[in-house]
From TrEMBL:
Matches recorded under SMART domains: ChtBD2 (SM00494)
Keywords: Chitin-binding, Disulfide bond, Glycoprotein, Repeat, Signal
Gene, per the UniProt record: 109538781
Cellular-component GO terms for this entry: extracellular region
Listed SUPFAM superfamilies: Invertebrate chitin-binding proteins
UniProt keyword Signal present: yes
Name used for this protein in its record: Chitin-binding type-2 domain-containing protein
Residue ranges with Polar residues bias: 244-254
Molecular function terms from GO: chitin binding
Source organism of the structure: Dendroctonus ponderosae (Mountain pine beetle)
Amino acid sequence: MKNFVCILVLSALTFSANAQDSFKCPDDFGFYPHTRSCDKYWKCDNNVAELKTCGNGLAFDASDPKYLTENCDYIHNVECGDRADLEPPISTTHCERLYGIFADEAKCDVFWNCWNGEASRYQCSPGLAYDRESRVCMWADQVPECKNEEVAGGFNCPANGEVSNTGSFSRHAHPDDCRKYYICLEGKPRQAREYGCPIGTVFKIGDADGTGNCEDPEDVPGCEDYYGDLDLKSIRKSELLAGLQSSGASRSTNPAPKKSAPRPAPASRNTPESSN
């Protein structure tokens, strides 16, 4: 009886495989999804079917209702539905599969774009980390697996209650760059978001703890020469014109200052220092 059941199971599997191998083209030409595999599809040419397989890490996009599009895309971009089967992964350095976008195992603000096993390194902007689920760069405090010291240079926000005269957030000067500063959100200790002042300005520490604004370098002792010999008036004029032309749209990257010096510590109190 047991042997009879095994024979029935094997017969069913053989019938299912043969059904796929004997795929009948619905039309003379087209590209049709495999019923079980998300990374396989049928190519029909002159009513002859050929089984094709996408690159390792890609899946067949069957969203074209006319079946005239041959498109393999990243697996996470394809609705596989019941086509759950995939070829076994083929991995290389930094690549779980030959094609795809993968997080770095050591640094949460780094991710890798893999194409045919070749990995290209990308890094999120300061204060951001790569979110594995949404596959975009987000604030580091919104990425559970990310530690703040990995993306904020070791800067830690003050504990709740340590900073007075603040509301829902506080501002803190970057210890090494006059133009940068951190914002700490209330109730989220150790989670610092890094920001930068507009071109031509630097961050000036406020009179009260956790406050400050972006001001002209000449008004911030120790940061007067932050931009070196750059013509700030011309830069601001071009920025204004670009803003008017784009009506608030994002603009190209601003020119970097010619020299940058560590921010001087104020005499009245200690500023946060980065830890190595």
